[in-house]
Amino acid sequence: MTNLQVSYYTFEPQLKLCVLCFSIFPENTEIKKRPVIYWWIGEGLVAHTRDKTAEQVGENIFEELTQKGMIKPVYKNKSPMVTSYVMHPWIRLMLIFVARKAGFFDFDGTGKPTADCPVSRRACLVLPTKRIAGASSLRQEELPRVHLPVPGDRQQNASSSSGRDDVITFFNVNQEYLHVNPGWFSKQKKLVVLQLGRWQNSDTHHIEVDSAEFLNGLREKKQLKYLSLCGISRITDLPDSIAKLTNLKILDLRACHNLEKLPSTIKALKKVTHLDVSECYLLEHMPKGLGSLSNLEVLKGFVIGNSTSKDPCQLKELVELKRLRKLSINVGSDAVVAEEDLNQLQQFETLRVLTIRWGGVVHSTPKESTRLRRAATMTMVSLSMPQNLQKLDLQCFPHNVTPNWLRSRHLAKLERLYLKGGKLSSLHYRAGETWNVKCLRLKFLKYMEMDWSDLQDAFPNLVYVEKIQCDNLKSFPCDKDGVWVNNKGNVRTNTL
């Protein structure tokens, strides 16, 4: 432990503060990279530079912590992409000791972060330790490996933080059923980070709030920079008072499955750089005015409005977003797709990552399927691709013919191509046209037919291929997990 502390104290101040955030996560859990970077951005631990976004600076911090042995990347299914990390238990214990001593967080005697924060200005929601009926000891898996010394050996008092109104970070570590006291919440005017949603790597992690009434208190959170409600059910809408969050940079609403609409006042969030409403399947359209969010870098879950939408935001409005790097689009079963709208995509010069999902293919009614085919036909003919794309993810494409825009000459800089579900039957290959793609993922493509030798001719730079439930791709030399790796060019990366 002493040697680990000596190593920690050699770090630069920024790295010290960033790594202390890992002290609150349970032992041996996979820590997803994105929520941690968002947290750092919210607290101002990382910020954009002249040539890098704040998110890219956060990526570099993860790389540095990996090089110094503080965290270990998790490579899943031999993939070169890294989205999660783990921390050795002894390193975690060292960080708990340092974080407690520095007042970065408050912990109980077993090293568990607490909601009561008599010293720290950061509070956590943590499940209470459960006891076995009739037993006096903790469950074996909950026993701490080391009881940490408490500087000053003070007794934590729940009431000492109950009246506190200067908390800057409120982080849900593992609570699944939330009750947020509206009275307490309204007093927290200095919050900059509110992570109530899930940070866990598994999408099956469920969080439920007993009442969304506390969200009305958002009008008081003028300092808030990061708000996550990711994966929380029973939130049907957001209050108009969200417009008061004038300093908000990141709004994460991913997988809020009961969310039905976004307020029109969201266009007032002029400092927002990240807006994620992906997997919010009840959203029928996006509010008009998103094109005025000039700082937006990441927009996930953009819905092309249906015929009943009064005045939806159209895709062509987003052309005004000169900093947009990542965009995901949902083409619903009743989408109204205009040709001039789809042609605008080629003007997204800063866009690097694009995801398009055509919805309602499997479970749609005959009437919905007709509308979807009409929308899909428009995308087949009129869709254009941004010239600087590095990643393209197409999901549930409802045509079997390869569209003209899905050709290498339109996507010269593409490095990652993901195809998931849908009716696509082949990747049409013309002699002399080769792709620069290094990572190819093919999932649930039961109609796809292609010979391995043809694939190699079309994709000569492949490093990684993943094939999951594509029954007709029998010639692919993938292992039992559906993976093929080019050992000669196998490169691990955190940013692919």
TrEMBL record:
SUPFAM superfamilies: RNI-like (SSF52047). Keywords: Plant defense, Repeat. InterPro entries: Disease_R_plants, LRR_dom_sf, LRR_R13L4/SHOC2-like, WH-like_DNA-bd_sf, WHD_DRP. Residues 24-91 form the Disease resistance protein winged helix domain. The keyword Repeat applies. Residues 191-425 form the Disease resistance R13L4/SHOC-2-like LRR domain. One of its GO terms (biological process) is defense response to other organism. It comes from the Eukaryota. The keyword Repeat applies. Pfam families: LRR_14, WHD_DRP. This is NB-ARC domain-containing protein. It comes from Aquilegia coerulea.
